[in-house]
Amino acid sequence: MFSGQAVTQAPASTLLPPRLQPLKASLVSDLLAAISDPSNRKQSVVKISSYLTRLGAGISARDAFLSTRAEIMRKRARMIRFEGNIALYISELALVTFTGVKHTCEWYLASFREHDMASGMVNWGREQIENYAIMFRRQVYGPDVDTKTIQESVHVTRIQAKRLLQDIGLDFSFLLDGLLAPPPNAPVPRDRRPSQAGKNLPEPAPSPVLALPKPHPLTLSSRSRSPGLPSPGLPPPKSPGVTQSQMRAPVPLPPRSRERPMSGNVQPKTAPGAIGPYSQAIKAGNLVFASGCIPLDPSTMQVVSGGIEEQTTQSLKNLKAVVEASGSSLSQVAKTTVFLKDMNDFVSMNKIYAEFFGDHKPARSAVEVARLPKDVLVEIECIAVASA
Question: What pTM was estimated for this model as a whole?
Answer without folding.
Answer: 0.47
